[in-house]
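WARN no homologs supplied; continuing
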Amino acid sequence: MADMEYVNLGRLGVRVSRICLGVAFRGQRDDDVAVRVIDRAIDLGCNFIDCANFYGRGRSEDVLARAMRGKRDDLFITTKVWSRIGDGPNDAGLSRYHIMREVERSLTRLDTDRIDLYLLHNWDPHTPLDESLRAMDDLVRQGKVLYTGACNFTATQVVEAMWTADRLGLTPWACLQNQYNLLNRWEVEPELLPLAGRHGLGLMTYSPLAIGLLSGRFRRGQIPPADSPWAQGHHDFDRAMSEQTDGVVQSLIDVGTKHGKTPAQVAVAWLLTHPEVTAPMIGPDIPEHVEETFGALGWQLPAEDIAVLDAASTVELPRRYT
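OK structure emitted
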């Protein structure tokens, strides 16, 4: 297996592993196995780990705290705030009240004195943007947070946040996090990719395998594996595994066969061909999944294979009339 690669987080000096480990563990209920997954990723050189207060209602942060004991100072840890974590009127959103309360809870669960990257998990239409940004700036000034950013914001929302922070003299964002894969290109490629590149923002991309659809385990007309979310009624498999999706999977298989790689490794390698992407985020449930996905490193997709995957995953965008 290739050695881990490290890159700067956008324009900043801090260096993170080329692949980020997500520790939501939605498909792994055994905490001991979850800890072993994190241990394996760290052993292979991963120093970039992502969690959120919402994942498992704190379980993600609790498990990560177990795994990083004695290793904390060598790891770059991300967690998030916004999601509903209770039934109370202030148990969700991006108010100063909610942010300040939840950061303390996350610090306690993570058993750490700082959060390296604290992310607004989603846009909050019910809170003034400057209130959220001022709260995050205060956390940076207090030393409880080193860097800030946001998840799932549109390009327009990112620009508004950047303008607001600049106007008020607040800490600029370091990183964005959005879904990006061969089946979901057009929420990111037209505007967010060039925006991140132009302004030196890091970009973490989640769901690189589209909840497993790009792993090669799923094919059109077949019953999805019983241990997958697609077989458990969480998603509409027949609708998701369209003729085009199946064609993308076949292209991944064909390219992988040519290079001795699995479809999952090719799907992640395709993401790595985009220089704006700091780190694709993987969500393995067993240590073996870590080892397989990290096999996306140490080689490069040739241009002709990138063209094949691009063509297979291209969708026609609605026309804009001016």
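The two ends are 51 Å apart (CA to CA).
OK
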